[in-house]
Amino acid sequence: MKPTGRVWKFGDSISTDLICPGRYYHLRSNLNELAKHVLEDARSEFAGCVKKGDFIVAGANFGLGSSREHAAIIIKMAGISVVLAKSCARIFYRNAYNIGLPVILCDTVKINDRDELRIEMESGEIKNCTTGETLHFSPIPQIMADILKEGGLVSYLKKYGDIKI
Amino acid sequence: MRQFWGRTVGRTVVEKILSEHSGREVCAGEFTVAAVDLILAQDGTAPLAIDVFNQLGVGKLAIPGKSAFFIDHASPPPRRELANDHAKIRKFVSEHSAVIFDIGDGVCHQVMTEKCTSPGDILIGADSHTVTGGAVGAFAVGMGSTDVAVGLAYGKNWFRVPETFKILLKGMFSKAVFPKDLILHLIGLIKADGANYKCLEFTGESLRHMSIPDRMTVANMSVEAGAKCGIFPSDERTKMFLTELGREDKFRRIEADKDAEYEETIEIDLSTLRPMVSLPHRVDRVLPVDAPELKEIEINQIFIGSCTNGRIEDLRIASSIIKGKRKHENVRLIVIPASRLTFKQAMDEGILEIFNEFGASINNPGCGPCCGVHQGIPSDGENVLSTSNRNFKGRMGNPEAFVYLSSPATAAASAITGRITDPREGM
Q1: pTM here?
Q2: Could you report the per-residue pLDDT of A110-141, keeping only the tens digit for each?
Q3: Is B142 an 8 Å CB contact of chain A?
Q4: CATH 3.10.150.10 fits A4-138, yes or no
Q5: Within a domain: B21
Q6: Contact criterion met (CB below 8 Å) for B44 and B170
Q7: N or C terminus of chain B: which is more exposed, having fewer CB within 10 Å?
């Protein structure tokens, strides 16, 4: 897997309320409508302009707050291929892998808005095509890599019939 | 006890519970598959969990009598879409012989702790504040809808055994200082990601003075420091709590071994704490109530309720402060008992009458305005003081509003003056 795309840069502490606002609570069973409001209160232009394959690059504690898996789902629906963050809140992190959205934890300070990145998931390399820099990230836990490989936890369980630790 | 290289190593509370449910000894950092005892989902997360459960194609629930569905977040439903979500949950529960707590029954975490969660249990819940169950010595953890659907289908899930921070509590609270002030202080200290992926284990001599409702407030907000769970050992206070609710047979003592290994130890002397306030839009922006920055903050709406502070103990404290006083004319006060039991107690004790006389709006048990769906969305530019657990931008349904968090005592004192007020002044 070698996703390529442009960066949407966000700061620290992007909560699930910023990703998936509570005032659209009634749209949770209508994901297509809900997805139109993804990250609306953080960057209002995001939902309308994001392109398939783009990256979210954020600071510390991305996805803190509620357990609403809808937050990870509508980021994936928007076309985001990978979320990169300095750190990530644990429920969001797990939710993202469960629905087949990779989250990479790395030092995101040197990545700028609109930079073009190319990510080598297997070798753990992030190539910044705009600045020429290469960043590295640690491999993810095996169970999460296996879930991601199958595209999410449902497909994983359908294939293996059980959780393999 | 575990043996490592000929050395005996004690276990933390969470290591003990996860070992029991894994059928083998596990320690911090390990991955394991563990059986779950209890599962919960609420009306905001259950519809998706039901869809995922159906996709898994397992057909029936693994532990139907221990799978609880709550209609508490948008309750009663303010919109057609939400009414349809509720109907979907009721149909699923009926078809699968699961357990439902419907409108008016209360907030999931309050009801679970009153009726279901017991020491040593593993509870997984599609709600981040599931951690509240740690108050009775359970490993209670918030997850997304997919993980909860896996629990519903298989009666188990995978876990990474968390490292534990020992929060050593000593001394007693001063007048007008409460467990909410303790947890706000701790979050301010270690910050919103300070315990990311970790377990917070609360221990120390102060536990003798902390009731289960007190512990629930603290465990509830452990997730606001990023923690996977906030857990208390089960002790005499736990036994008393379960006995009062007719569940004394569920009591068992669980505590960490004396030589358990902790990643970090944080000591807090409760007697040094002051009433604390969390400022918008970050829970970890915490100041003492008498900080100069808070002096002129006028409040438009106050909410006393939620899974953090909607218990009878909270309502007793708040009502004792406002009794015989007049509500400030510019403040709207919303009071929501956390459960049907709390509602009844508040009614029987005359507390609802005090709030009513004062000019509060008393709503049905449930989550109320906490998560921005209904029952008190603030207008643009307004300041809210809430006893709930989150003040993120947009949390209460309006990104142009400002939410402050405090204890019920601070909230009640502020309802009289119309600005953030030190509860020590009036008590």
Answers
A1: 0.97
A2: 999 999 999 998 889 999 999 999 999 988 88
A3: yes
A4: no
A5: no
A6: no
A7: N
